Amino acid sequence: MRSVSITYLIAAVSSAAAAYSVWSHREADARLDTKFEAKFETLRLANIGLRADLEALTTRSSRFLRREWDAPPSEAAPTDCPFTCDDDNWCTADDTKYFLFGKGIVVGARNEDCEYGNGILSVDGVSSKGSNCPEGDGSVTLGTGNTAKTSATAVTGGINNVAKGYASSVSGGIGNVASGGYSSVSGGSKNNVVAPYSSISGGYKNAASGRYSSISGGMENKASSDQSSVSGGNLNEASGSRSWVGGGTNNAASGRFSSISGGMENKASSASSSVSGGNLNEASSGRSWVGGGYGNRARAFCASVSGGQSNTALGAGAAVSGGDGNTAKGQGSSVSGGTDNNALADFSWIGGGQENKASGPTSSVSGGRLNEASSNTSSVSGGHSNSATGIYSSILGGHKNTANGQSSSVGGGTNSVVDDQYATGTPFSLSEDGKWWSAEETSHFVFPGGLVVGKRNPDCEYGSATLSVDAGQKGAGTNCPMGAGSVTFGTFNNVPRLGSFSTILGGTKNRIAKKGGAILGGKWKTVQQDYGTVPEIV
């Protein structure tokens, strides 16, 4: 507005108009003062400016009265209400409109102790006094007693849950806390997610403190290293990077990439080690494995114990399949089973038995008790207290036998000792063509039960200390020396039990029925009295 008084200006304009009228009728007066003409022009222009100011003032006053002061036309106050209400106090929004709430919305009761963030949503209707608190900008709280402390957090249900980390969330449950950025708790009670990107699905008092760690459920489990996980169980911990515990109780996977499938009080403490189950088992070296059982230990690289009790694999690549108290100490050594067996040398093996030892490289004990193969590639197949001490030596069985010589062997028996190289421990030697066994000339032979040369008669109950030379027919023997100390040669000759000490030297189908008899040969001969003989040959 101009500082000139409106009244003064209007009067000046009127005077000027009157003066101009007089001047216009005195056209003849050519000597009108030019100064008057200039003043008149000034007053005329002032009048034009005054009218413009009056119009502007009128417009601004009208807009003020309509509450549109300096507001652009697009922000004019609406003239219609966007809700339609019925007699039951229900109001319905205009379904053609969007609604914008810059600060946020609280449905139900307001928590007077909460400093609400911007752009929040809270559904809080359990009591007249609100209990939820969406403090973070863009946060959401549903349920009761829940708190969303930082931006983009959400608690969508449950009681007394807290989402602390940026963009963290708690879906439900009681007393859960998600404090790592982008972390989440799905449910359960008193679970705590500390690290970024970690999660807990449910359970009770579980804690995920490693980045990208996870716990599916269970009770008081811990996933404390990067990308570690616990599927369930009780008091389990996955503390190695990328480690895993499937379930069970008090299991600990502390090695990188280690795993425990289940069981109780098992440990996988080295890189890529694993325990499948059982109780008090331990895989403590890289890539070692315990399948199950009780108190087993795999303590070397790639060592394994499949099961059993108190077994130990101490050598690299060593293995114990089962049993009780067995040890595989050498590299690549193994014990298949048994009790208190020890495979001590590299690549040694024990099949089973009790208290056996394979102490030579590539040595083996198949079974038995207290046997030992102590030299390179030596072996004991079985028996009791046998010892193979020579290189490439072997013992098949028996008791207290010893093979000391290189490539020596003992077939069995008792207290046999073979000291010579390539000796067999028997009074026989094999011919070069492999067809004939020859007895030692200095050896005697005792056959307490008897001796059959040729074929055995399957229908005969042979007596003790008997001798039969029997070519047989159709693959079976025909003679039958049933009497103790009896002898039968030929074919189809028979000495019954009462014919002890009797002899049939040949022929066919002869018979001695009494003791001490003799038939030299022939056919269909019979002796019916003690010490009777048939000397003639027909």
Task: Note the main attributes of this structure.
single chain; 538 residues; mainly beta; 21-stranded parallel β-sheet; 20-stranded parallel β-sheet; 2 helices; 55 strands
Short précis:
With 538 residues, the protein is mainly β.
Give the arrangement of secondary structure elements:
Layout: H1 6-25, H2 34-65, E1 83-85, E2 91-93, E3 104-108, E4 120-124, E5 133-134, E6 140-141, E7 147-148, E8 154-155, E9 162-163, E10 169-170, E11 177-178, E12 184-185, E13 192-193, E14 199-200, E15 207-208, E16 214-215, E17 222-223, E18 229-230, E19 237-238, E20 244-245, E21 252-253, E22 259-260, E23 267-268, E24 274-275, E25 282-283, E26 289-290, E27 297-298, E28 304-305, E29 312-313, E30 319-320, E31 327-328, E32 334-335, E33 342-343, E34 349-350, E35 357-358, E36 364-365, E37 372-373, E38 379-380, E39 387-388, E40 394-395, E41 402-403, E42 409-410, E43 417-418, E44 428-430, E45 437-439, E46 450-454, E47 466-470, E48 480-481, E49 487-488, E50 494-495, E51 503-504, E52 511-512, E53 518-519, E54 526-527, E55 533-534
Parallel strand pairs: 3-4, 4-6, 5-7, 6-8, 7-9, 8-10, 9-11, 10-12, 11-13, 12-14, 13-15, 14-16, 15-17, 16-18, 17-19, 18-20, 19-21, 20-22, 21-23, 22-24, 23-25, 24-26, 25-27, 26-28, 27-29, 28-30, 29-31, 30-32, 31-33, 32-34, 33-35, 34-36, 35-37, 36-38, 37-39, 38-40, 39-41, 40-42, 41-43, 46-47, ...
Antiparallel strand pairs: 1-2, 44-45
